[in-house]
Amino acid sequence: MNAPLTTGHWLRICTVADIPPLGSRVVEREAGNIAVFRTGNDEVFALLDRCPHKAGPLSQGIVHGQTVTCPLHSWNIDLTSGEARAPDVGCARRFPVKVENGEVYLAL
């Protein structure tokens, strides 16, 4: 991913077009990578790139609707809240994200 640009407390990370539909991009950082997801409806969400179950890389999961399925043990994580879908219990940290004029911004 290109070098991020900062704008106030929002960090410009990429364009929506840089995120594959039903896919993700990873923002690398020392405190833990962040997975930025794009749904089939071009909605953008950001979660800590660690499944709450066994710390699997959510960025490598399958996006369907507003959910990502962890590639390790198939836990379904709601992209809007970070919460695991029943019957599983747990939560991935969510980060505020916004899209303006096709640009994706992340608040850390």
UniProtKB/TrEMBL annotation:
Taxonomic lineage per UniProt? Bacteria, Pseudomonadati, Pseudomonadota, Betaproteobacteria, Neisseriales
Keywords from the named record = 2Fe-2S, Iron, Iron-sulfur, Metal-binding, Nitrate assimilation, Oxidoreductase
Q: What is the name of this protein?
A: Nitrite reductase (NADH) small subunit
Q: Which NCBIfam families match?
A: nirD_assim_sml
> Which top-rank group of organisms is this from?
Bacteria
* Cross-referenced CDD domains: Rieske_NirD_small_Bacillus
What the entry lists under Pfam families is as follows: Rieske
InterPro entries named among the record's database cross-references: Rieske-like_NirD, Rieske_2Fe-2S, Rieske_2Fe-2S_sf
Q: Which GO terms describe its biological process?
A: nitrate assimilation
Q: What organism is recorded for this protein?
A: Andreprevotia lacus DSM 23236
